[in-house]
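Researcher: Let's do a round of design. I'm pasting the structure tokens now; please hold your answer until I've finished.
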């Protein structure tokens, strides 16, 4: 009788949860990413750009980087302070480089320099993405990520949906969609804490930059199963 009850319990759990084997392959391509970006400066402006290196599990690591300019007469770089100075009108590409496990990694930013009396158009402060399912559960919808004074806002569209049958649903920002290590949880995995499952909704996330994370993902948190994924891209 005890054996029969045990078998029935396993069958019930299998029907009503998202238990499966944990994801083994949690590797992602290592990346060097410019975190603080700018698309236009006025002659005389001085800025400092910042870049972050993410290893092959999406974890940020300290790396020595080198900044270069394609046109030093337009944009110059101080090799000691890494300050970038707008010298003259024109356009230049600023490139950052480092050596990773797989070889040289780079990222670049095209910056336009204009006269002091010209109105500078600010950098794009909005990104976007579309969640798609990775399992047989409901997981879909569009969203925008907007830069704010204190961090970012994630604005889910009307077509957003998450599966309400999932035990312990949670929404995360991450640089590695295959693992919860170093992921930032932005939605509760306990329904009593107010998980959002359908329709438009806005999350305010303080202390996070627009370029800090590359993915927005949905997880069945207690059993560590990825059910929905979106790459955050430029709008």
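Researcher: That's everything. Go ahead.
Model: Designed sequence:
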């Amino acid at each position: 009788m005890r054996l029969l009850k045990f078998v029935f319990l396993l069958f019930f759990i299998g029907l009503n949860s998202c238990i499966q084997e944990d994801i083994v392959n949690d590797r992602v391509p290592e990346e060097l990413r410019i975190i603080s970006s700018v698309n236009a400066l006025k002659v005389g402006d001085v800025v400092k750009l910042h870049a972050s290196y993410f290893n092959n599990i999406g974890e940020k690591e300290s790396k020595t980087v080198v900044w270069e300019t394609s046109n030093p007469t337009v944009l110059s770089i101080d090799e000691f302070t890494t300050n970038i100075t707008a010298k003259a009108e024109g356009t230049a590409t600023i490139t950052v480089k480092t050596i990773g496990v797989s070889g040289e990694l780079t990222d670049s930013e095209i910056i336009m320099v204009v006269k002091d009396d010209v109105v500078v158009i600010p950098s794009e402060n909005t990104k976007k993405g579309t969640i798609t399912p990775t399992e047989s559960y409901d997981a879909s919808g569009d969203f925008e990520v907007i830069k704010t004074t204190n961090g970012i806002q994630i604005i889910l569209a009307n077509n957003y949906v998450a599966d309400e049958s999932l035990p312990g649903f949670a929404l995360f920002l991450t640089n590695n969609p295959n693992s919860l290590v170093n992921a930032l949880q932005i939605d509760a995995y306990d329904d009593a804490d107010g998980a959002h499952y359908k329709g438009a909704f806005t999350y305010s996330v303080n202390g996070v930059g627009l370029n800090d994370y590359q993915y927005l993902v949905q997880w069945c948190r207690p059993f560590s199963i990825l059910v929905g994924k979106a790459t955050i891209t430029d709008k």
